[in-house]
Design brief:
Chain A: This is Amidohydrolase family protein. Chain A: It comes from Fulvivirga sediminis. The complex is a heterodimer of chains A (434) and B (458). Chain A has 13 helices and 17 strands. With 434 residues, chain A is an alpha/beta fold. About 2% of the residues of chain A have low confidence. Classes of the chains: A alpha/beta (434), B alpha/beta (458). At the A-B interface, strand 10, helix 10 and helix 13 of A face helix 2, helix 7, helix 8, helix 9 and strand 17 of B. Strand 10 of chain A pairs parallel with strand 17 of chain B, so a sheet runs across the interface.
């Protein structure tokens, strides 16, 4: 009788859980022991048949360890644990429906607006976020676009209810390096116009930069207490000053070979913390990039070559060619709703020259290092954030299923609107007849 | 004297062009593919098997096959041999896509706008794709007729691309695109999904009347004392009448379940049966109805959310449709995606656990059925066209690389011998490099709406 009562209570409980949420089920936290797993640490050897302990949001232990008393044990026999995948440049969180300007928050008006903060516009409740994270992408750089200085990008974890809860510890200013070529086949400007506009844009950039340098000097003087006057409110310069001083990262979006060359020249002797992004023609200047010691975020890998006369697989081989020349390479999708394809972008790069191991790094530890968050993210190590995903196979293979996702120790419900639609409509009821 | 010289030169060029086009139209090759893992699609997987193509057709599939001396042999040991991939929705090899000037433009035909020089054809070949459906765009409720092409890259003659004997097809479109282009911008019907239905009903009713007038005329004109004259010939109504007669397969751009259901109701009322829905992102919601009607579905693996009518999509669409008995294909609608349809098909294993065979059908025999060419292509069977793709590993693996693509027995892509620059006609006037093809640009174009609208179809 008592047993019966218990069953009924349990069933009622399950039912309540199923009914009690609006958009998504709640994530749970606590102490977890992921046992019998193949642990792909990325930064050191892979651990076979190991256990990983999560407590207070951190990886508290891993290897041949036993589960602490009271831990939620998840048997990972036959499964693989990887550090959460990091998308190094996307609009995820900044847009809901691509074609609807009312839902687009990544392109503010203005040419020099580095003070516009992507983090402000991140929508924690975007439907796109659960769709993305159930594929094992746990962290994403939200990047504003357009103009010369588009704004300040922010690294976010894909779980949380406020931007601050999601913030993953990195912000960087975005610079769209002036383009000297045609912007695609539909660019109807004459060669003269293109040249003029490019020169003007570069002049403008240099002008802004000189101003920022001057501002930074005055600002530093005041900060050092050597002057008592106050600076007028000048948010652009206030944002650029730490970039000029090499304290804050500058993300330079640049793609065509000539422009990359010019950008290498431009950053030289400036002593900046800089990452080149986009870099679809990085392969053409791989040696120069390596020599200048400039790290790169490239992608999408699944893209057509930049030029009609390029080899058909240029975008697939690009990352591998840069890596072989000694460039540090991270991979991005530059997408919004389909950031979930990050492992496939890495997989294509792996197949076309980057190799499996490096490709995995390019979406885990490498971006973590580039963003200065490798003490928390990018690999499975004791003391780091428990931000990871668990699969039944190779994370790059489409056949592979992601079984669990943890973000900062939160056990993420493995559902999104897309999985719910599957559950509802696979075997629709009513079917054909009422 | 000078004039004769010019005439002489011109006639030489003309003659050369004629010879070229004749030889290209007749290009049918012989290849012997040895010891591959042959994914026949319709007859299982055959290990260590040879495929012999003679005169552009698969003449034999078996073990230890021999070919006439001089026949090109490809060692496929350890490699995977599959039928050439077919894309049921593409706009490559087209110099124009959208005749966006009226809600009904059944009289136009993309076959008049083929561009054999398009580098995208080669890039598609490099992804194992041998056939694509060069579709009209989706601006009009009833768009233009479309052409099924074979990727015979190298021909400079647009006729060289046509897949001779492929059934006629036409593009229809529902939802946001026709209502935006015509209703919102020009203030004419359709501005709503009600209007879209009205366009179909009025067009087919008109076409029916037109057909009847001609039938009456044709039966009466031989009679004694007949005095009437022939009805006015109308190319648009001719095309619509051909749809009513079942001579044209309708490929309809669609997203939402309600509009998909609507078109099936309209077609039932007019007795039209040959219907393939394109994109059909919400097809999964009316999968039982699609299956019952016999309508087919050509979908994206995972594209969604680029506009409001695809916000409520799911990447499980292809799996739900397949499991409900709808003949489903995965298409590209993109010069980028077309290069890795094998990978797109593989995503249905993540989203819905389709088997290898089910997933491969989505890019071979199923699109062939949707284009009405399944008797000739879409599987490896003796007697079918010699359209074959050879991969380094299983085509659904992320680690596979397309190695050879063969059209009509002619090797059109060979990774080992792939010169970087595959343009047929480099533009000598181009002095500034055309570069930077990124999404941001595309998005920006989309804002401008109309002009970009003509270039994309989603």
């Amino acid at each position: 009788m008592k047993q019966m009562k218990n069953i009924i209570l349990t069933l009622a409980g399950v039912f309540c859980v199923l009914l009690s949420y609006g958009q998504n089920a709640k994530a749970t936290t606590g102490t977890f022991a992921l046992t019998n797993a193949t642990i792909v640490t990325v930064t050191s050897d892979t651990i076979k048949n190991g256990t990983l302990i999560i407590s207070d949001g951190k990886i508290t232990d891993l290897g041949t360890v036993s589960a602490p008393a009271g831990a939620n044990v998840i048997d990972c026999k036959g499964l693989f644990i990887f550090p959460g995948m990091i998308e190094s440049g996307a609009r995820l969180g900044l847009v809901e429906v691509g074609s609807d300007p009312r839902t687009r928050d990544y392109n503010e008006v203005g040419d020099i607006i580095p003070q516009m903060k992507a983090l402000t516009a991140v929508n924690p409740n975007s439907v796109l976020i659960p769709v993305t994270r159930v594929s094992g992408v746990t962290t994403s750089l939200a990047v504003p676009t357009g103009g010369l200085f588009s704004g300040t990008a922010a690294l976010i974890n894909l779980h949380g209810y406020t931007p601050d809860q999601m913030y993953a510890g990195f912000e960087g200013v975005v610079l769209n390096f002036p383009i000297t070529g045609k912007r695609g086949r539909w660019d109807r400007r004459s060669d003269e116009e293109i040249k003029k506009e490019a020169e003007k844009a570069l002049e403008k950039l240099n002008e802004v930069w000189e101003k920022a340098e001057a501002y930074s000097k005055i600002d530093s003087t005041i900060l050092a207490g050597k002057a008592s006057s106050k600076l007028d409110y000048y948010p652009e310069m206030e944002t650029l000053a730490p970039v000029v001083r090499g304290e804050k990262t500058l993300l330079v979006e640049v793609n065509a070979a000539n422009d990359i060359k010019a950008a290498i020249e431009w950053v030289k002797d400036k002593n900046l913390k800089v990452i080149f992004t986009g870099m679809s023609e990085g392969w053409r200047l791989a040696e120069e990039l390596a020599e200048a010691n400039i790290p790169v975020i490239t992608g999408p890998v699944l893209d057509i070559p930049n030029r009609d006369y390029d080899k058909y697989d240029r975008s697939y081989t690009n990352a591998g060619m840069m890596h072989q020349a000694g460039v540090k390479v991270a991979i991005r999708t530059n997408d919004a709703e389909n950031v979930r394809n990050l492992p496939y972008n890495a997989g294509f790069a792996a197949t076309y020259g980057l190799g499996k191991e490096e490709a995995l790094k390019a979406i885990t530890i490498t971006p973590a290092q580039l963003f200065g968050v490798d003490d928390q993210l990018g690999s499975l190590e004791k003391g780091k954030s428990a931000t990871l995903f668990i699969t039944d196979g190779d994370p790059f293979e489409p056949k592979t299923q992601v079984k669990y996702v943890f973000i900062n120790g939160w056990n993420i419900p493995m559902e999104s609107r897309q999985t719910k639609l599957y559950d509802e409509f696979l075997d629709r009821s009513p079917g054909l007849k009422k | 004297m000078r004039l004769t010289n010019t005439i002489y030169k011109l006639s030489l060029i003309f003659l050369f062009a004629c010879v070229c086009s004749i030889s290209q139209a007749q290009e049918r090759g012989d290849v012997l593919i040895k010891n591959g893992t042959v994914l026949t699609i319709t007859n299982g997987t055959l290990e260590n098997t040879d495929v012999l193509i003679r005169d552009g057709k698969i003449s034999k599939i078996g073990k230890g096959l021999k070919a006439a001396s001089g026949t090109r042999e490809i060692d496929a040991a350890g490699k995977y041999v599959m039928p050439g991939i077919i894309d049921a929705h593409s706009h490559i090899a087209l110099s124009s896509i959208n005749e966006a000037t009226s809600p009904v433009t059944a009289e136009v035909w993309t076959g008049d706008a083929l561009d054999p020089l398009d580098i995208s054809i080669y890039r598609a070949l490099a992804g194992g794709v041998t056939i694509s459906h060069a579709l009209h765009g989706s601006a009009n409720a009833i768009g233009g007729q479309s052409e099924t092409i074979k990727h015979r890259y190298g021909t400079v003659d647009m006729d060289g691309l046509r897949m001779e004997g492929a059934p006629r097809t036409i593009k229809f479109a529902l939802g946001e695109n026709p209502t935006r282009v015509h209703g919102e911008r020009s203030g004419i019907v359709p501005k709503t999904r009600m209007g879209v239905e009205a366009v179909f009903r009025s067009s087919f009713s008109e076409a029916k009347q037109y057909m009847e007038k001609w039938e009456v005329y044709n039966s009466d004109k031989g009679k004694k004392g007949f005095k009437g004259s022939a009805p006015e010939y109308n190319l648009r109504l001719e095309a619509l009448a051909d749809i009513l007669k079942g001579n044209i397969i309708v490929h309809c751009h669609s997203y939402r379940a309600d509009e998909i259901y609507m078109l099936m109701q309209v077609f039932k009322d007019f007795g039209i049966k040959k219907l393939v829905f394109q994109h059909v992102n919400e097809g999964f919601k009316v999968a039982p109805e699609l299956a019952e009607f016999g309508a087919m579905a050509s979908v994206f693996a995972d594209w969604w959310d680029y506009k409001f009518e695809v916000y409520y999509s799911t990447a499980y669409n292809a799996a739900i449709l397949t499991k409900n008995g709808v003949v489903t294909s995965i298409n590209s609608d993109s010069g980028e995606l077309i290069r890795h349809l094998y990978h797109e098909a593989a995503k249905t294993q993540k989203y819905g656990d389709l088997s290898d065979d089910e997933a491969l059908k989505l890019i071979t025999i199923n699109p062939a059925k949707q284009l009405g060419i399944e008797k000739r292509v879409g599987s490896l069977e003796e007697g079918k066209d010699g359209d074959v793709a050879i991969f380094s590993a299983h085509p659904l693996s992320i680690y596979t690389v397309p190695l050879y693509t063969i059209v009509d027995g002619v090797v059109k892509f060979d990774k080992e011998n792939d010169p970087a620059d595959m343009r047929i006609y480099p533009d000598p006037e181009e002095t500034i490099d055309v570069t930077l093809h990124d999404r941001e640009d595309e998005d920006r174009c989309m804002d401008m709406g109309y002009s970009n609208y003509l270039l994309t179809d989603k």
